[in-house]
Amino acid sequence: MENIKIFSGRANTQLAEEIVSYLRIPLSGIEIGDFSDGETYVRIKENVRGADVYVIQPTSPPTNLNLMELLIIIDALKRSSARRITAVISYFGYARQDRKVEPRVPITSKLAANLITTAGCSRILTMDLHAGQIQGFFDIPVDHLFSSPIIIDYFRKKGSNMIIVSPDTGGVERARAVAKRLNAGLGIIDKRRPEKNRSEILNVIGDVYNKNVIIFDDLIDTGGTVVNAARVLKEEGALTVHVACTHPVLSGNAQERIDASEIEEVVVCNTISIKEIKTKKIKVLSVANLFGEAIKRTNEETSISSLFD
Prior knowledge:
The chain is α/β, with parallel strands linked by helices. 29% of the residues lie in helices and 28% in strands.
């Protein structure tokens, strides 16, 4: 690979180390700290003039801090004359606020996209956006990766008699694609959100009786939806309930909820760093090789979409 440098913010250093291990190159030198008033300090410790630079930094919780850190790193690289700056955002925070669902509210995913572009980013490499149209919020190229091949490969070894269930109508397309590749049935949870971070399950669409159910979603936040869905699915006669998602936000007491639920296993990816796993039900799969190969192909100007053919 020609003139490539990879930097990591503090949001997910373990993923960054796995990516450079796949690429067989070292992480480039960067110093990141905090001033006493909480402002972020960044210094690039090596020459990047004319380099093809990649910054690995998901905007995961604490979202505001990690987003600001990403912006400052991009600005430092831009002012150091990097040729191209690609933000490797394994998890894009604020993605759920992608439209106005009521009067006088912001569209923060567009705002975040504008901030990253204005900071000097040349390209975005991300995974499983909450809504595909967010790619259009950026005025720079976006390479959108999918974790589904890794998750599908894991569950393909688990057996048969499966049905893939989308936890809401918005995720049906995602669940249908997985069901097709696993040769499984498709179900949908009809839910309502009376208020933020709280969901109510109304109906189960599809036959889950005597089936091994996999609830497939892009992220788990508080865990309320999947825990409630698992309870309802068991009441409908499901044999087992597994959950698969890309981004383990797991805020608040989500892990405790999952541990006490009827869910047998929660399969997640390492797009977000889980500081402490408190339950044996969580299985973490690595997406480092996928990101590493995408970085390699971006540097070589070859196809990324062929990774998912």
